[in-house]
Amino acid sequence: MTIVLGLTGSIGMGKSTVATMFSDAGVPVFDADATVHALQAPGGALLPAIEAAFPGTTGPTGLDRPALRQAIFGDDTARTRLEAIVHPAVAMQRQAFLAAHAAEPLVVLDVPLLFETGGDRTCDRVAVVSADPEIQRARVLSRPGMTPATFDAILATQMPDDDKRARADYVIDTGMPLDATRAQVVALIACLAVAEGG
Q1: Judgement on whether residues 8 and 40 belong to the same structural domain of the protein
Q2: How many CB atoms lie within 10 A of CB 168?
Q3: What pTM value is reported for the model?
Q4: What are the backbone dihedrals phi and psi of residue 197, each rounded to the nearest 5 degrees, phi first?
Q5: 90 and 133 belong to one structural domain
Q6: Are the CB atoms for 165 and 130 separated by under 8 Å?
Q7: Exposure of 167 by Cβ count < 10 A (0-12 exposed, 13-18 middle, 19+ buried)?
């Protein structure tokens, strides 16, 4: 039986880096963000529905992210309308991924808003990627175009890190050298292999 491990973490916590570590170790990883980007790329399946709901936010280059951000910023109703377009499409892709890897002992669902969207209910275990708030803030503010106000706005849409840690089965600490984080990932894979075998 396949163990489905949900992998999540707030912005700047190093989730993508940890997801790559799982992939490097041979564990199939479903990347929800990459799936969304593909669905919103030029010719992407979601573009007509997004354009209909938010006119002027798509074009020949696919989704105009700044325009869409502007269209939904601070508007919970607009955000809900967008999620109603995106989430079912991502769920279909996730089901296809799980079906394709049904023979694997372990798969990872890399989902930024796993708890916020109730995605944790589809997982056997959940691992949260975390680091100290000071490390998180420094990482995010070093990104091009990121401002403290934008960072705070993004954090406001995410479950607090303390709450995520409390709900997780495992916490992967990224506030340390990469080799130490990788060792945690390897140990977790081994732990889950024992659980699957038992």
Answers
A1: no
A2: 22
A3: 0.88
A4: -70, -30
A5: no
A6: yes
A7: middle
Same domain, yes or no: 61 and 76: yes
Over residues 107-134, the pLDDT tens digits come to 999 998 899 888 999 999 999 999 999 9
Q: What is the 3-state secondary structure (H, E, C) of 82-140?
A: HHHHHHHHHHHHHHHHHHHCCCCCEEEEECCCCCCCCHHHHCCEEEEEECCHHHHHHHH
**Helices 32-39 and 76-100: crossing angle, nearest 10°?**
110
Q: Which helix (H) or strand (E) holds 170?
A: strand 170-173
**Rounded to whole angstroms, how far apart are CA atoms 5 and 109?**
6
Identity of residue 27? V
Identify the segments of the chain with pLDDT beneath 50.
198
C-beta of residue 94 within 8 angstroms of C-beta of residue 71: no
**Judgement on whether residues 83 and 145 belong to the same structural domain of the protein:** no
Same domain for 121 and 172, yes or no, is: yes
Reduced to 3 states, what is the DSSP secondary structure of residue 159? coil
Domain containing residue 37: 32-100
